[in-house]
Amino acid sequence: MSNTEIYKKTLTFSLRRLLFSVICVVTIVALSTIGFLIVEKMYDKGLVGLAIGLVLGIILVAVISHFFAYALSAGQIAMMTRGVTEGTLPEDVYGEGKRMVKERFLTIAIYYAATRAIKGIFNQIGRLITGAGKAIGGDTGEGIANAINIGIQVVIGFLSDCCLGWVFYWSDKSAFKATLQGAGVFFKNGKALLRNLGRIFGMGIASLLLIGGAFTGIGYLIFSNFPAAFQRIADEVVNMAAKDGSSVPEWFTNPQNLALVAAIILGFILWNIIHGTFVRPFILVGVLRNYMEAGLANLPSESDMNELAKKSPKFAKLQEKGDF
Fold this sequence. Notes:
Helix content: over 70%
Distance between the termini: 34 Å
Number of helices: 12
Mean pLDDT: 83
Structural class: mainly alpha
Strand content: under 5%
Largest sheet: none
Number of strands: 0
Oligomer: single chain
Order of helices and strands: HHHHHHHHHHHH
């Protein structure tokens, strides 16, 4: 199967995740609005109510996502892995994906233990790389290190998904052993897998500019028609700052500027949802194929695993522990 065929067949997980994301966004917006209206009416401090509603909404969504959203992502990765390794997928892709997740991770605790282990190992490897930027010293070195770290975090997200695919592929191994071996695959084949960077960042930046930029522009056109609402928010911010004996930069007291800020936030949120739903899965299929091909052709040996343990204390600790 080609990458496009696998992407289309597994898109059902993405669409379900999109619906889930929309429900989450609506929930956060609704709670924020309710908080603003209630506190504004009772205490004339709507901005405080908005913040309270926003925090409650984020917490609620985080709890729900923890227990339900993982199955959609894991199921999609399981089916993508089967597609790139076996060249075929079942008719009921969604049902088979759910079955594989339940079979591989008997409890949600095992799933999150595996993903935490994967990210912990890759983060430690990433810190070794960012150390090169900090070694330059000064603001320049810090800036380089921060830029490198942002890029590494993006790559780590893809590597974690690939490593999870490795766990699904080796169904005869424990999730723990497959997780460690999956990290070893990247360590041994890192140079071969770096060819994915162009695909990851090229398509990511393009989607940010096109999708995020489009929604930012649309959001600003809408928000700029409600200057009174943003003036009310600006006045609230100024009053709160005055009570603390501080001042607010003049730029933030302009309702048009606040409308732009709100549009940028909206554009980024919507880009993140759409990118994660439609663009990132397409990128992931190609990255996952390269990862599986490199790993199966060049399995990490015991000496490779021991060498990785020297570079990642997290990996060494997991090796000694022998289980999640």
